[in-house]
Design brief:
Shape: elongated
Structural class: mainly alpha
Number of helices: 3
Radius of gyration: 19 Å
Strand content: under 5%
């Protein structure tokens, strides 16, 4: 609509930029399980070169969302 009314136009790349393939097996093998202890999660993230701070940033948010949803219902 913006371009049709005389506004500027530009190309915008689309699609995911984090990988070129998507595999259920890769996800199952690499994503942390929901029953892992903090120590097990730290070890799993370390295998991928991530620190414990990075683990908290990446995994902590999803855990808070799951807990919030579970306690709501």
């Amino acid at each position: 609509m913006f371009v049709q009314s005389g506004g500027m136009a530009f190309d915008m790349p689309t699609g995911r930029l984090d990988g070129m393939i998507s595999s259920v097996q890769d996800a199952s093998d690499n994503l942390p399980g929901t029953t892992l202890s903090a120590k097990e999660m730290t070890q799993q993230f370390a295998q991928h070169g991530l620190t414990q701070d990075e683990m908290v940033t990446l995994a902590g948010k999803s855990r808070v969302i799951i807990i919030t949803i579970a306690s709501t219902y």
